Structures are given as C-alpha cells and as structure tokens.
Fold each of these.
Amino acid sequence: MAMAKLLLRKDPPVSYNFMVALAPSTPLGPSVTGALALASLGVDAAFTQISGLGVQLNYNTVRSGGSNNEVFHLPGGVNRGALTLKRGLASFTSPLMRWCLGMASGSKTIEPKTIVIMLMDKNPYLPPVMTWMLYNAIPVKWEIDELDSKKSDIVIESIELVFSNMDVVGL
C-alpha cells in the first residue's frame, strides 16, 4: 500500500526535467522505441530549452444556408509547427550535431529520424511522465548565438526540426 502511494503523482509535472534522444531505427511500437531511446541516451540528452511541441487542427467556417445565426466548423488538416531545441554547443562527436550539419553540407541526403522527448518526473525513481515520439523529423535550421568578445556567456546552439507525425505516450 505504501508503494502504491509513492507511485501516485499529486503535483503537476515540472518543465525543467526532460531528455531528448534520436530513436534507433526500428519498426517497434512507440513505448518500445521510447525505452530503447532512453537506454541509448548520451551526449544528446542535455538540452536547456524545447519549444514548438504541439499540433493545431485547421478548420473551415461555413455559414448555414438559410440561417444567419448558425455557423459550422469543419475540420481540415493538422498543422505541426517547427520544434526548436537549445543547448550549449555540442562537440562534433554528437550524433545529433553530425545529423544536423549534414543538412548544411548539401552533399548528402538527410535521413529522417524519430526524435524522442521524455518529460521526466522530479522523483528520479518514477518513469517518465510523458513521452513524445516525433516521426520523420528532419533538421531545417542550425545556428549558434552571437559570438561577442564583451560577454562571457556559454555558446548556445539552436536546432530547428520539422516532423510529419507525433505519438504521445503518457502514464
């Protein structure tokens, strides 16, 4: 009974505890792929900020034929924005960095990847609160912050990705 109380979440999840990984290429389901990605995390897990995670349903507004007081909203396609990941500048040995810079070289084909984002619980003994699987992601932008000799800030790199589909796995 005491263990069951320990596993119940009472507080909302915290936004500062998350991990990011490139999922291994496997046709397995999202929960297995997420577990494999969690096991294979490495240098690419340490991001300071993620933004743009979400979807929006487009809709068309249609007025009723004979009634001016009635409006119908018909669903259209789903719009997925660009995902932006920020972190301190990683070394060139980072698999994510090599994948993104492959886009910049223009000499090789960009291979779409599955990105796994895990929102971790503040209690390290509990499983992730939620996992997002972003399929067919490709890097569309990579940049670093301004280099300025008058500042002593850490160099932050931003990686912008677009993706075709998303699964959400939560507890």
Amino acid sequence: MRTQVFISYRRDGGLESAQFLYSQLKDNFEVFFDMESLRSGKFDENIEQAILDCTDFLLILSNNIFDRFEEDGDWISRELSLALANRKNLIPIFLPGFVNPNAKNKTIQTAMRYNGIHLAQDEKFTEKLRSFLKSNKKCVLPIACKSHGYLLTETAVNALKEAYRDFRYPD
C-alpha cells in the first residue's frame, strides 16, 4: 500500500513524539515511521521512496532539529528538501521548547512558513492533525452500482455528479 503519511524527526529530541504520532495515526493511515516501517534493502532508497510516495510529510520540530542541517548527508535536510521539491503537504509539529531558528538556509525558511500544530497528547491535537492531513480528505469509500454490479469510489461518484450536474436531455 502507498504511504500516506511520512514522519520526519531527529532521534535525539524527537523520537518519543514520532512514536506518539505513529501510534495515533497507524490504525487509520498508512504511516511511514522508520523504526516500524523499514525492512531489508537500501536505507537511503527506502526512505526516499517513502517520501516520494507519501501525501503528507510531518516534520517534528524539536529544539535541535536543525543543529546538523548544514552538514553533508544530514537526514533531516535530505528528507525535508525532497518533500518540498515534490510538493508534499508539509505539516510542522512544534514540540515544547522549539524556537524558530531564523536561519539563512532557504529550505529551513520555506519550512518555517508552513502552518503547523503544537504537539499536545490529547484528543483535540489528534483531531486538528487529522484536519491538516490531505490523506484524510482523499479517503474513499466503495459504492456499489446496483444495475451493473461494479464498485465506484465516493470520489468518482461525486466527480460524475459534478460533471453531469447541468446535463439535460434534449426535448
């Protein structure tokens, strides 16, 4: 199944929050969390493919998230750059203690312009997060066509209704 949500975090400072987010989303979404999702194969290729496949990219903003961002091979830098270049739905998750770094790096500046959510381990946070997820809006429910016996998704039915909204049979 295609990854819907990718969780990006720095292990030092963001691991517990990544685990919490994974636990909150895994039952309703296909979530990529490296510690749970990675299997055999090349680490870098698996991470990059998961980002290319995802719809939503969660960036956990711990207070040290950008400390090594300028270093060659930094995974946060690689992941964020790939997500932005491929126009993923970036959702910053602000942890307590995070301070906007006012960095000169263009990638960081771009990421900090996105609307995000402050992490709280309560029901309101989970509801708000789900409202930010584009994957949530793309969920489809199968609908049976009684006369032909095949299935259409709710999205397809709505698209057909919209396309034929003004249709009139000729007199």
Amino acid sequence: MWKKENEFPQRPEPVTTPAPRIAPAEPRREIATIGPSITVKGDISGGEDLIILGRVEGKVDLKENNVTVGKSGRLKADIQAKLINVEGEIEGNLLGVEKVLIRQSGNVRGNILAPRVSLEDGSRFKGSIDMSSRAEEEPDAEAKARAGSAQAKEFTVNLASTEDDPARSSR
C-alpha cells in the first residue's frame, strides 16, 4: 500500500552561489624604491609610485603618481607629484597635484603648492604654502613656488592637548 521511494533519507544538495566579483577601487600600481644606500644625482621621472629611502639631488617629476620620502630619505630636490608624503628631509619646493602631507618626522625647507596640505604635530616646515585649487593646471606653478621663498617663515607644528594646559581643559 505505502511504497517507500527510497530507503535512505535524501540529503539536501548543497547550494553554491558564485562569489561576488569585486572590482578594485583603482588598478594596482607599481612602486619603485630608492633604497637607503642609494644616491641619485639628476632628474627622476616615470610612470609609477616612488618611495625614497636614500639620497636624491635634482628634480623628481611624477605628476600622475605618488612620492613618499621615508624617514631615512634626504632630498635636495624639487618634487612634482600627485600626492607627496614626507617622513624624511627635503630641501626644495613641493608641487602636489592633489595633496602634500608632512608627517611628524618630516622636515621641509622650501615652498609648497597644493590644493590640500597637512602638517602633523611635530613636523618641521620653513617656507610658504599656496593652497590654490588649480595647482596642476598652472604652467608657472614652479615659478610661483620659488617666488614665495622671499617671504619664507619657519613653523614648528606643536599642538598642545587640553590635558597639558589646565586653562584649556576648563573650557
């Protein structure tokens, strides 16, 4: 009367869903490194990001790429790049297409021309800053950066916290 179709209980078949395809936010970028024992005298240009841990004298021109000067990096050079990140020492002008960031260990003696500039607490800077939003479009941007050196001032960024100053903490 009642007929069993299968003596063994049927297992549910595993459901597989294809993994979602995640598109990278931006294509993977190649990165070149000038190591701590390397010294370069001359102009540097190219089509990849650059990390400088050694010494450079001359000019660095990477308008469409990022340049990072590591803690051991020492430059006597003008730098033109999309984003400039300074942790070491630079004597020269910085032209950032998007941003210039001077980290706590950074020391810059020169002028900065970029739409966005950030100086971390403890960083050292002597020069002028021009935050024009169209720095990358100005053909004489380097000349403008040099012209500001006559009015250069030295700044040491040191932001006191409210915990250190009782007068501020009562506000």
Amino acid sequence: MAQDSLQRRVEQLEVYDLAGNMLGVQPRDQFYAEVRQQYIKEGKTTRKVKSVMALIASSRGGVYSTRRSDIREENAGLWDKTVGGHVHTNTSYNNTLVTEFSDELDISTVIAEESEFDVLISSTDLEAKAVLKKVAYDPNFLSERRNKDGTFFTTRFMVTFYFGYYDGRVG
C-alpha cells in the first residue's frame, strides 16, 4: 500500500510540444516548475500535457462544482469544475476520468458513447452511478493558473471535456 501511495504522488506525465509531438515523460512537479520558469522568462509556455475536465449535473437541474483546497499550489481556494485531472503515462482519457471520479468524489462512473447516452441516463440508477459522455476535445486549451503568491502563469493542455448526470451523494 505504501508503494502504491508513493507511485500516486509521483505522477508521470507525457509531455508534448504545442504541435502535439511527444517530447518525453516527466514527473508532474518537474513539468510545472519548468513551465512556470519558462512563463516568467518568456511570457509563454511551449509544452503541454494531457488532462480531463468534467462537469456533472443532477437530473433535477443542479450542477456539481468543487472548491479547491486552500493548500493547493495552484488556484487554491477557487471554485472549479466537478472533476479534472492529468492523464498519466499509458492511461487513456476515459480511464483517467473514471479514476478521478472514484478517487476525488467516491463516485462510480460510466462513460457512454453519444449514441448510448440518453438510453443510459434513463436506465441507470443515477443515485448510484454517474453517466458521462465526451463533449469536446481541445488540443491547445489555454489555462490561467494562480500561484500561492498571487502571481499568474498560463499553460496549455490537451483536454477532453465530459458532461454527465449524477443524483447521488458526493463522498
């Protein structure tokens, strides 16, 4: 278990140039330290990583959002999408999203194809499971990040966006 915990803390990310060519693999902390420094020196970043972002609503019309912890390095204390995360090496966007929902909110999740989405929404117990679908992909999503010291930097992501429904309690 301790080894699993250590592996989770050292997130290994595939790093790409802005054209989408893979440059290599880097620990998450090292990637962000380098893109922050590049932004300070050049006013831009030239590398990006893969990520997922999801927003879920209840079938009754509410929307779930999360407030980031005050101890986070970036965007501490700000309101955010329901779930998001980095895609680790050798992991798909879909598997990343399922893992993030489980780890962050303790919610079981299924990702549906567009053609199956409405059927799954009406046939799934949304109190027990979230049903999501891919809604967009942006290979150069620009994100402004606020550091703990109040300064900002921007970086790009290769993001798959998801939307879905869930009516249960959040972890």
